[in-house]
Amino acid sequence: MFPTKAVLYVLPVFLLCTYFPLDYQLNNACKTFESYYNLYFSSNCFYNPDNNDHPLQIMKRHVGIGESHQVTTEDGYILTVFRLPRDKPKGLFFFWKAGYDVWLTNSRGTTYSQKHVNLTVESKEFWDYTFQEIGYYELNATIQYIKDTTKKEKIIYVGLSMGGCAALVYAALSSTECANSVEVIVNLAPYIFTETTSPIKPLFFAFPLKAILRTLKVLEFVFLQNFVSSTVTPDTKHEKVDLEFTIREIYRRLENLDRHYAENNRKTDTIPENCLEVKKRGNNVTGIFLIKPEYASAPFLALCDMITRGGGWTVILNRFDGCLDFYLGWQNYKNGFGNLAGEFWLGLEKIHQLSGFQVNELLVELVDSGKTEIYAGYKHFSVSNEVEGYNLQSLAGFSGTAGDFLSHQAGMKFTTKDKDNDIAPKGNCAITYTGAWWYNKCHQSQLTGVYTEKKNKYKGLRWGERFFLKKARMLIRPQMDSDLVL
């Protein structure tokens, strides 16, 4: 229970929020930062019709199109998602104009997502959720729906404030799904303030507000926009402007990125075929670049190492902390998974496109449990197509300090837990050793095993008699005349 006086004190606040007059000057957008100090009286401010309209009305006003979709989560919430599709070449919105297919999500409980399979908004169970449910259930369902609708393998996620927090929950609780579905996450605005200027902040500390709301059976508590607009400080008005400025700045940088790619490709008007060609065009800093092998149907992003042993390497595998699950199936290994800024597997199809039509060399870099750095280099490396099982069709010319423990797998097809292509008399080597590889009967090396596996040393990251590798990288590039040992 809570003090009766507390109820008497707080009720006027609710009455004020409920009955605050609706007639006000329709000024909600200003041309200068300073004008926001006198929002209702400045001649530089004007009425923005988008302020009070439905999202579909706003979309159709600006670009002539807009879609509304409903997504049902695993725990029964029915969410409304708005879309600006890219099938019609017109429009003004920032990211849509930049070429993106834009989806606007609405979390459970918001104006456009107040439905549930079994519950109603009058039920207290409907409102019993936290950021964890939003990040886990909503993003899993919504992102999968978007992928199914657009037939795209990955999306770019931009989260603002609570949306950014939900993205972090999603990445933590659904790391595999996140790695396979999201190319990059962009988080804007902080999620938690340690100090905030707010005229209503004292209310949350002066009274047991949560208990009061439950007693009054108030399940949804949202200030009227007009009331909030009239009580915010000049500083918070600046925050609104700063957010708009931030969005414009992101768009400006997208345009600069387009110009950067155009400048880099101006001489040939083509996308580089591999990381070595990227280096030859004057890029000497290791980073992520867009490449398109000659026989690839579409370009893709790749991590290019411009420093190691002459540079120009395309990194096809990177492991260093065990944060990513590598015990996956055929489609994952075919298409690739992980994050180019962290642990990842580039994908067998991309490796084939890079190495299947010209002679490549392979570099394997390893760090063992004693933190000793070793390497294995091969002057000839080639992977065949999917019909041939992504066969390790060419591997020769070994040099290095790690020993040759890959030639044993030469000529073998790739095997995963759901596609057994090895020649072991019994069982599937991928299942037996919890990995995926060009298994023979079964292996002398495996760089896709369980990170720091202690129970069974043959299931870990293995290279010969080194069973507990701490780091492993595989890099390829078109064959060069110089030796790998520099």
TrEMBL record:
GO BP term, example: lipid metabolic process
Domain Fibrinogen C-terminal: 266-480
Record key words, sorted: Signal
Signal peptide, first to last residue: 1-17
Gene Ontology terms: cellular component: extracellular space
Database matches in InterPro entries: AB_hydrolase_1 (IPR000073), AB_hydrolase_fold (IPR029058), AB_hydrolase_lipase (IPR006693), Fibrinogen-like_C (IPR036056), Fibrinogen_a/b/g_C_1 (IPR014716), Fibrinogen_a/b/g_C_dom (IPR002181), Fibrinogen_C-term_domain (IPR050373)
Pfam families: Abhydro_lipase (PF04083), Abhydrolase_1 (PF00561), Fibrinogen_C (PF00147)
UniProt superkingdom: Eukaryota
Name used for this protein in its record: Fibrinogen C-terminal domain-containing protein
Origin species: Zophobas morio
Lineage: Eukaryota, Metazoa, Ecdysozoa, Arthropoda, Hexapoda
